[in-house]
Write a structure and sequence with these properties.
Layout: H1 20-36, E1 43-48, H2 55-67, E2 71-76, H3 86-97, E3 104-107, H4 116-124
Parallel strand pairs: 1-2, 2-3
The protein binds guanosine-5'-triphosphate and magnesium ion (MG).
Length: 127
């Protein structure tokens, strides 16, 4: 490999809008990629800070945990809630998904570019 790192954006739940046949193909692709790629340094799992984890979030979270690769969880769209609620909401998401608290959960907003420093600091540990 060259001395570079890449962000690979895997298909999200948008693929639930695909036909059943396509869903199976994409699902198999994601599974194979996550399990067979030795070049994955870190999985970054993005969820929505505003809501409790959905059934899909829980499914994906447990799947990622089973992959046994380093992972951080980013609670995105922090711009959509009051700044005073951000920390509380991230804690609540972690309490539900990861009560053992062995993964890092961080707020983020790709819209507003806030909290980028904390997120980069975490990512840099893996590259
Ligand atoms: N307010 C706000 N909107 C956001 C933020 N991040 C993404 N969005 C919006 O959310 C919508 C979905 O964003 P995508 O990046 O396509 O989400 P995705 O999870 O990759 O979707 P799929 O891959 O199709 O599952 C878009 O309209 C974005 O503009 C954010 O931090 N704040
Ligand atoms: Mg996407």
């Amino acid at each position: 490999m060259d001395e570079q790192f890449y962000f690979v954006d895997l298909p999200g739940y948008g693929f639930s809008k695909m036909s059943k046949e396509e869903q199976v193909k994409v699902g198999n692709f994601i599974e194979e990629y996550l399990q067979k790629s030795n070049a994955i340094s870190l999985i970054i799992f993005l969820i929505d800070i505003r809501h409790e984890p959905t059934a899909n979030d829980k499914l994906m979270y447990h799947y990622i945990v089973k992959c046994n690769k380093p992972c951080i969880i980013i609670a995105n769209k922090a711009d959509k809630i009051a700044i005073t609620k951000v920390e509380q909401q991230v804690n609540q998401l972690q309490n539900i998904l990861n009560p053992m608290k062995d993964y890092v959960f961080l707020p983020f907003s790709s819209e507003r570019k806030v909290y980028t420093e904390q997120v980069w600091k975490e990512i840099e540990k893996y590259i």
